[in-house]
Design a protein that fits this description.
231 residues; alpha/beta; Rossmann fold; four-stranded antiparallel beta sheet; 33% helix; binds adenosine-5'-triphosphate; P-loop_NTPase
């Protein structure tokens, strides 16, 4: 569904992503792994069009993405939940969700009902300020906001970061439901190995901006974990 080929990316003179390939198969959940600073967030931002790339190709459902704006990539069916969630603390839950919808002069921004079926707490908290929600509720809000346009690929950057351990499991169940029951293809960055094992089908490990190992999650061996993932 998503094919990244030979991507090179620079921050100024710093070469961050090196000839990087990534395949995300339709209907599956792929986990992008690697230690801090290896380029995971940079890769997601490049896919979303939030950072320019120097060379390479990115295709979504066979269509070239690199010539498209970030807004256009979202409208083609890619939802993005950034690292740190980035909800607006002073806006209501409803306003935060509406921000995910494209602006239409001819009608009120209507939040689809399935969002509240997936996240009943967001309906309960609809008029509360985003900043008043707990960390887990904010993560649901951030995922809900990425889903209001009904994407076919959902990209999540460290969805469990800063979330209490008992809520991490809840976030995992939400991602599993989205992927296995609703059929969304998922690409996520995740550093917690047990969580990755629970939700993901495939892995791709980055090391210093290069893809160094890929495969099925069930086959991720101890040697790769020791070499590239443990700190
Ligand atoms: N805006 C920026 N300007 C310059 N260098 C940057 C910028 N953002 C990130 N970097 C550098 O790019 C490299 C990759 O960073 P990136 O955030 O993509 O890594 P990551 O794997 O997502 O790490 P983490 O798990 O800590 O979020 C790091 O060396 C980082 O210092």
């Amino acid at each position: 569904m998503l094919q990244v080929q030979g991507i090179n990316q620079f921050y100024g003179a710093s070469h961050i992503l090196w000839d990087l390939d990534l395949q995300v198969r339709e209907g599956r959940c792929t986990c992008l792994m690697g230690r801090n600073g290896v380029g995971k967030t940079t890769l997601l931002k490049a896919i979303m069009g939030l950072l320019p790339v120097a060379s390479g190709q990115i295709a979504f459902k066979g269509r070239d993405l690199l010539g498209q704006s970030a807004e256009r990539r979202a409208s083609l069916g890619i939802g993005y939940v950034p690292q740190g969630r980035q909800i607006f603390p002073l806006l209501s839950v409803e306003e935060n969700l509406q921000i995910g919808l494209p602006a239409r002069a001819d009608r009120v921004r209507q939040i689809p009902d399935f969002i509240f079926e997936l996240f009943p707490v967001l309906r309960e908290m609809l008029h509360r300020r985003g900043g008043d929600l707990s960390g887990g509720q904010q993560q649901q809000l951030a995922i809900g906001r990425a889903l209001v346009t009904d994407p076919s690929l959902l990209i999540l950057d460290e969805p469990t970061e800063g979330i209490q351990p008992n809520v991490v499991q809840e976030i995992g169940e939400i991602i599993r439901t989205l992927n296995r029951e609703i059929g969304l293809t998922v690409l996520l960055v995740e550093q917690k190995l047990p969580f990755a094992h629970k939700v993901a089908d495939d892995f791709c490990i980055l090391e210093r901006g290069r893809s160094v190992a890929t495969g099925e999650m069930a086959a991720l061996g101890e040697e790769l974990v020791r070499q590239y993932l443990t700190v």
